[in-house]
């Protein structure tokens, strides 16, 4: 996140946060129903019927159009490379000078907007760092390169402490239960999701998120701070709201970023959105005087466990009949296909169930199209392809193809890792071999403390990336 101390802004909270608005899902007890694109919060009455609770959440005027989203972020490797090429000339001192300014929809040309592509590795961190440092000196590109490594740091931190993800999911379930049973909380949550809080900047960011699928990093921080400290909503609901709607939504950067704002990630240190800071870095587009909380009291959560040892990744036997499992966590399969000659390819479809509610449709649309792009470009190397949606599908595919082992890119903490763990438990599924990239093996073990000890390793990381 950007760490804001007065007018000094230090970059940190992964430039990777985004939103839309509520997605519909059927739930037991109080639940969300879809009626002509209108979400109605309802629950069963004592007689077993249904009674609406509160007003409908009408998304018709704010629902992102797939065509518009694909124009903003075309889901292909070629589009990622074109965006990187266009940004590289600005990745040095221009970026350092203007990176903190949120100038509104259509005016984010001073930042890279590469995050959706990095999220699913349509383009890799190493590619981005190499391209930028081919054009700029390490000193000139320092701020942007640090942004790339902030994302890496978050990934490594959570990979060393997977219990934090589990704790978040449990707390989210409790917060969702509270939304269904507490009218005041429900009303604040609905208004925040609709962008109808009366706080002009917050509501404008909500609309931008819905209409464009993107939000500037600094605005994401302000949004999170207002959600937690001004609207007094549980941070877990905000993290869930972002994760279900971000094109670049990532369990590590998203969860840990919200924890940082709430004063949990760095114990007792919160991020408070201030009128003067918002006014300055939006160039006076917004000036929410007297509308924001004046203090940020840290929220509470269990202390994180001590970091575990990083899983090393698995070894595979090239003599065995092998299937390659492609998934949304890593869509640059060339590294793996240089080692593996698969007999068949399973294509794991995007995971849409990240909590009580389904992800927004544009998330699956983007990642499905990205998967299609990858399988088309690599079709000759991947072999016969089969779409898979669940751990039981993985088992059935392996049986149908007579596979002796399944090789797949390493899946960090999140829904794909959970699915692979479930598939591995079956006696009928062959060994699932997760191969870890050298970049992750090099960087993640150093995310044992805060970012600044990690940052001291950046010259070594960069030298290894350039040497490779």
Automatic annotation (TrEMBL):
The protein's required cofactors: FAD
GO terms assigned for molecular function: deoxyribodipyrimidine photo-lyase activity; DNA binding; FAD binding
EC number(s) from the headed UniProt entry: 4.1.99.3
Positions that bind FAD: 95, 144, 248-250
Domain Cryptochrome/DNA photolyase FAD-binding: 144-283
One Pfam family it belongs to: FAD_binding_7
Keywords: FAD, Flavoprotein, Lyase
UniProt key word Lyase: yes
Cofactor note: Binds 1 FAD per subunit.
Gene3D superfamilies linked: 1.25.40.80, DNA Cyclobutane Dipyrimidine Photolyase, subunit A, domain 3
Top enzyme category: lyase
Name by which UniProt lists this protein: Deoxyribodipyrimidine photo-lyase, putative
């Amino acid at each position: 996140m950007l760490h804001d101390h007065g007018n000094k802004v230090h970059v940190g909270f992964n430039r990777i946060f985004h939103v839309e608005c509520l997605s519909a899902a059927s739930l037991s007890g109080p639940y969300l129903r879809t009626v002509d694109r209108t979400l109605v919060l309802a629950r069963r009455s004592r007689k077993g019927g249904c009674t609406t609770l509160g007003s409908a959440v009408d998304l018709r005027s704010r629902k992102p159009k797939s065509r518009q989203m694909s124009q903003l972020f075309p889901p292909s490797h070629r589009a990622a490379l074109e965006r990187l090429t266009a940004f590289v000339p600005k990745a040095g001192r221009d970026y350092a000078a203007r990176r903190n300014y949120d100038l509104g929809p259509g005016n984010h040309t001073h930042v890279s907007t590469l995050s959706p592509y990095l999220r699913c590795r349509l383009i890799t961190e190493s590619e981005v760092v190499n391209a930028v440092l081919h054009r700029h000196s390490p000193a000139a590109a320092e701020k942007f390169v640090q942004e790339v490594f902030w994302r890496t740091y978050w990934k490594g931190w959570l990979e060393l402490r997977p219990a934090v993800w589990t704790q978040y999911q449990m707390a989210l379930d409790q917060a969702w239960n509270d939304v269904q049973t507490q009218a005041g909380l429900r009303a604040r949550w609905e208004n925040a999701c609709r962008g109808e809080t009366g706080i002009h900047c917050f509501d404008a960011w909500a609309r931008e998120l819905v209409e464009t699928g993107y939000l500037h990093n600094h605005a994401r921080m302000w949004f999170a701070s207002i959600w937690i400290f001004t609207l007094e909503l549980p941070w877990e609901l905000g993290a869930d709201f972002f994760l279900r709607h971000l094109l670049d939504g990532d369990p590590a950067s998203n969860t840990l970023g919200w924890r940082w704002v709430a004063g949990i990630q760095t114990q007792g240190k919160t991020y408070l959105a201030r009128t003067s800071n918002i006014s300055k870095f939006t160039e006076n587009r917004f000036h929410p005087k007297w509308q924001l909380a004046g203090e940020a009291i840290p929220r509470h959560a269990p202390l994180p466990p001590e970091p575990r040892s990083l899983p090393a990744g698995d070894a595979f036997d090239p003599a065995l009949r092998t299937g390659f499992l492609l998934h949304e966590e890593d869509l640059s399969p060339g590294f793996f296909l240089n080692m593996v000659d698969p007999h068949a390819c399973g294509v794991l479809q995007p995971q849409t169930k990240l909590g009580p509610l389904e992800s927004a449709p544009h998330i699956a649309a983007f990642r499905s199209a990205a998967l299609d792009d990858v399988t088309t470009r690599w079709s000759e190397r991947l072999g016969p392809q089969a779409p898979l949606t669940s751990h039981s599908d993985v088992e059935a595919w392996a049986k149908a193809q007579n596979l002796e082992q399944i090789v797949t890119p390493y899946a960090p903490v999140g829904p794909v890792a959970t699915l692979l763990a479930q598939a591995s438990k079956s006696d009928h599924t062959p060994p699932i071999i997760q191969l870890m990239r050298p970049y992750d093996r090099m960087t993640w073990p150093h995310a044992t403390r805060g970012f600044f000890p990690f940052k001291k390793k950046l010259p070594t990381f960069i030298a290894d990336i350039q040497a490779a």
